[in-house]
Amino acid sequence: MKVAVLTGGGDCPGLNAVIRAVVRRASAHGFEMMGLRDGWKGLLEDNHFRLTRETTSGILHRGGTILGTSRVNPFKVENGLEKVKRAMERNEIHAVIAIGGEGTLSAATRMSQEGLRIVGVPKTIDNDLNGTDFTFGFDTAVAIATEAIDRLHSTAESHKRVIVCEVMGRHVGWIATYAGMAGGADVILVPEVPADLVRVAEHIKHRHSTGRSFSIVVVAEGTRIKLSHEGQEQLVTSGALDEAGRPRLGGVGSIVANEIEQRTGYETRVSVLGHIQRGGAPTAHDRVLATRFGVHACDMVARGEFGKMAALRGNEIVSVDLAEATRELKKVPQEFFEVAQVFFG
Ligand code: F6P
């Protein structure tokens, strides 16, 4: 039986660990594994290659994805669904294991509702997928951002500056909250709580009036900001669209830094971490989580559990409906963020 695997959307550390795990487990089930190049695009364009133990050895620790990735969505391609169905028939693909985030798995959900045999694996540094406690890639991104915040601390302290660190995460503040807490940030701004920059500046002034000479502010790229108490909330985008047609986020850090400097008079700098958070080797935690997801996903195919996604609940790997995983974004709960707020200032 032929089973295909693809990686879609933004890459993240741990993708290769899933691919390796899927291929290893597949041999126990007697599956022949195929790798689709560049996400759904590989299926639409018959661009694939055989995956074996040999071609997937030595990749566990490597960042990125040996399959390549793209944000191509078959539902945005003319007759895309028909093309996917015909490609699966033509290549005798029994099932597809789709490793992806919200975009890739939303397409997977619709395809499985159309009767295609699909199993999902949740990846993203953003940790915004519903139905799973954590996605792989998140722990690595948090580790990288935490190290960056530690480094910013020492230079901010030496120069008596405010430093604003902009992190990724799209419309949720998981990376900002975790890395900000781990790095001891003085203010954390997240999409879940619109940021009144007048209040942020007052807060920093108050902190400095109590003898502190520097501050670290962590801001998630998707944070909606207000330049006055009554002002309109605004989301900062680069003006360009990504491959999936969604606005590219980024740039909020500069605005936050500028407002702080203008309102406090303290020298303020910005550091944007960008894709550094997504590249390089996965942490041990992400390697293990990705491996467990990969083995489970292969077992799901063997059991005929389609239209579902491997998920982490507590410390168990379980299968949840793809529809549940993509129903809404998983935001940082208020109670969790309130713990981070205890340390502001
Ligand atoms: O979803 C992962 C992510 O890194 C987001 O945090 C970020 O907004 C986006 O992808 C960046 O995408 P791109 O690689 O297309 O710039």
From TrEMBL:
Substrate binds at T124, I125, D126, R161, M168, G169, R170, E221, R269, H275, I276, Q277, R278. This is ATP-dependent 6-phosphofructokinase. Its main location: cytoplasm. It is found in: Cytoplasm. Mg(2+) binds at E102. Catalyzes the phosphorylation of D-fructose 6-phosphate to fructose 1,6-bisphosphate by ATP, the first committing step of glycolysis. It comes from Archangium minus. Homodimer or homotetramer. Keywords: ATP-binding, Cytoplasm, Glycolysis, Kinase, Magnesium, Metal-binding, Nucleotide-binding, Transferase. Belongs to the phosphofructokinase type A (PFKA) family. Mixed-substrate PFK group III subfamily. The keyword Nucleotide-binding applies. Its cofactor is Mg(2+). The record marks G103 as: Important for substrate specificity. Pathway: Carbohydrate degradation; glycolysis; D-glyceraldehyde 3-phosphate and glycerone phosphate from D-glucose: step 3/4. Residues 2-300 form the Phosphofructokinase domain. It catalyses: beta-D-fructose 6-phosphate + ATP = beta-D-fructose 1,6-bisphosphate + ADP + H(+). ATP binds at G10, R71, V72, G101, E102, G103, T104. Its EC number is 2.7.1.11. It is an enzyme of class 2 (transferase). It holds the Pfam family PFK. The active site is at D126 (proton acceptor).
